[in-house]
């Protein structure tokens, strides 16, 4: 493995709510992006193969990509999974477990604004289809601003909820908003997650930390030219990444706001 694009999607829909629209791609755009991956000669491999390579196992094959999806929106079941199944492609979907609900019930256990989310029956079906189900905390709290007891609930609690529902271990985690810190990464490792995806908007490399895997976030403003650059390995940065001064400053500011009871979120600063 030299470098590989690990693509981060959220919602794939023609009609997202306004708050989610910037992080949503239309189904025809998603299909076109998969076509570009295929036309570029890249094979889509499971995240687990990347994680194995980062832990010192066999390297990834040359010219490959990884597909990941954050939060657990219902359109993953109705739109994304059929597209992936038709093409025989693997993917990992990271669930905010507090937003997953019983069939027929309403989601309400997370900080995500109201929108259709996966239910546990759909999650079981996706798992049976061979798609990897990972964790994304319980409530989608920015973990690097959480106090130790709340951090443990978010990281360990989501793992227990997920494994109880699936009936088998879950090992892949993704940080809400991409936010993490040394303390967060230690808690993730202590809980038994063997990988954790960040953002970074950079290509992943063989030197990536398995607990801060670099990903490229696909937005509704991602142009075909930018996507082509990513899959032809022309992204501007390659992991591993160090925290910049801007990242550290933004984390300190958000922690202060959280302590004052006026938390702020937003996209990760790098």
From TrEMBL:
Keywords: Signal. Residues 63-270 form the NodB homology domain. This is Polysaccharide deacetylase. GO terms for cellular component: extracellular region. It is found in: Secreted. PANTHER family: POLY-BETA-1,6-N-ACETYL-D-GLUCOSAMINE N-DEACETYLASE, PTHR34216. Pfam families: Polysacc_deac_1. The keyword Signal applies. GO terms for biological process: carbohydrate metabolic process. GO terms for molecular function: hydrolase activity, acting on carbon-nitrogen (but not peptide) bonds. InterPro entries: Glyco_hydro/deAcase_b/a-brl (IPR011330), NODB_dom (IPR002509), Polysacch_Deacetylase (IPR051398).
